[in-house]
Amino acid sequence: MSLIEKAGKKLDLPLEYAAGAHRVELTGTGEVRIEQHRGVTHYAPELIIVKGVGADIRIKGADLTLKMMTDDEIRVEGRIDGIELGQ
Prior knowledge:
Elements: H1 3-10, H2 15-18, E1 23-27, E2 31-35, E3 40-44, E4 47-51, E5 56-69, E6 73-86
Antiparallel strand pairs: 1-2, 2-6, 3-4, 4-5, 5-6
């Protein structure tokens, strides 16, 4: 068991939080919620790119807007056509 796994278990945290990994949640076709992000690198109505841990998160669609952004979470709304993970 790695040090991160041990710390997460001791603190009763899910492994992805202990490791700092991002979490992507799609609500229907109209909202994407991303936790543990590292900022927005591209912002346009058809494409929003969010920097994640180890991979960028590409949200494709139409009328995309950044509804909320904090240090821990981003919410994107609009017509979501696809989500891709990549470099």
